[in-house]
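Hey, I'm writing a tutorial for new members on how sequence and structure tokens pair up, and I'd like a real worked example in the thread rather than a made-up one. If someone can provide the structure for the chain below, I'll link this post from the tutorial.
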Amino acid sequence: MTKNTSVSGFPPDGSLHPGYLTAHLPGIGGRTRVRLEDFLVQEIPLYPPTGEGQHTLFEIEKRGIDTNTAIRRLARVWGVPQTRIGSAGLKDAHAIARQLLSVEGVAPPTVLDTEVPDVQILWAERHRNRLKVGHLRGNHFTIRVRDPLPDAVKRARDILEILQRRGVPNHFGYQRFGARQNTHLLGCYLVQRDLEGFFRIYLGSPREGDAEKVRRARSLFDAGDLGAALASWPDGGSPEHRALSVLAHGQDPRAAYRQI
């Protein structure tokens, strides 16, 4: 890794940015994501609930948390493994997002009566199968731009006219590489069957953006003190904590990987 590359593998100066398709036109100004309400996501289902079966299909509205956190909180309340809860995909944490989930063995009335922080259950019905990744038609986004320039509407229309005529490449940015922007590196270690390298990044390699307790735990892991790292890791239900627990108790890295 060169000196100009961050811990994630991306250059810190953002030089991988592909540029703008309408760079010759003036922008609209303004600010986005000032509040959670400024970024709304609505998942578009692939199919309706069947009305029967061992699973419950339900829709949640989550505020300011990621999908995995919502699943962990629900699983804890219901007393079921997280693996029983399915989703079609992950939704933004810094937003208000609505999406479908499924759970096996928990009846709709129980689901509807559930109360967990930052999660609201909107409806729940019986369903035959588990909701799996990709079981959605798409996502609808509503994005508010605050304090735009006075002629922002005209500028936006000029920009959209060009994009509609030329088309837009299917570009994906840093956010597609996880919250720590390193899933491409994790995947590389998995392809190489190097679980030690995988866990060096997955459980170690603290960075400035980590929460204080997590940063301390990652530093302890890098120092080889797995017991102290486990005690310092804040979320006992997270996959990182589960994997670290297996390693701290002297088990094989393959057993730790199965906890993720």
